[in-house]
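User: Here's a chain of 383 residues. Predict its fold as tokens.
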Amino acid sequence: MCLVVLPMPILATTSVVINEIAWMGTTTSANDEWIELYNNTSSNIDITGWILKSTDKTPLIKLSGVIPANGYFLLERTDDNSVIGIVADQIYTGSLSNNGEYLQLQDASEAIVDEINGSGEWLMGDNSTKQTMERKSPLMAGSDGVNWQTSQSPGGTPKIQNSSGVIENLQIKTELSINLDNEVVAGSNTENGIIINEFLPAPDSSTQQEEWIELFNQNVFDANVSGWLIQDIEGKIIKYKIPTGAIIPAQEFLLLPKSQTKITLNNDSDGLILFSPNSTAVDKVEYLSAPKGKSFNRFSDDWAWSQDLTPGKTNTDSVVKNDTNEKSTVRNTDNNQASLATVGSLFFNNGGIFSTAIIALIIAIISSIIILILSRSAPQKDS
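Assistant: Prediction complete.
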């Protein structure tokens, strides 16, 4: 089975949106303002002749250029130094008021494509820390105040996917876990039917394999996973954004090797979270210990370790029985599931602590029965 890339349009309410605004400037200079646009579609869009303006006409930007499919367009104020290390797509003049602006994006026919009403005050962003104002979802209206957030870090996310916001990221181990425990059900259809299906955290060095993560498309139709995000949850947290044009065919897999994602999973406690493009966490799995050379496999509503690795294939039922040193627990959404593979070894392995106790108990019971029978059959003396 292989990944087949097919053209698939992304449904969106607006073709181009205002995606992020550094109305406060940067830590280098308050004058280093910038604005980012995002193309919601799977086709390039020529915005030559479009206008981005505030109601007071400052700024008033006559746009020129092409926004790539599912890509970004960076507007930097005055010069190309507002965002260090990233080349601006266009330079503009005119400052944004720190007290807020009402912004409108108009196409060449002067039709309003997107708008943000921040005339009273900006909906989000922090002037003191220089954290930007980010759009949560490019598919939701910019006029909806709840669709905006303050960026996780100062400087925001120019020309890359927006962060999950200050609260969601800084408290990801608590609030996000609670949210998933209450809302996402293991093995059921997650958003768009994309799930984490198998991953290898601790490869056997003798096989010269590297770590990998496998996603599965449960749908009966192809799924566009452009912009989806996957990250680990312990130690040095790495986020990997699936590139534009990635398609998982119906009932097929997407294999992500470590060399591509740069995600390094811990051999002890760690896990994975899968985010949709609008930063919604749709699937999560955790483990306490990763056995060498075994992958963690999803089986309906459960997870188990297996030495039968199946990257890009259907998981098999040849689950390895863990010994007492390889106990694993997966907190998979709304319940905690502990591996029961060790139970048999505790009772029946040679020399096991329970086997000795059981034998002793059986001997004691048999002895008691024999003594009782003998005492009853013995002749009774006359009183």
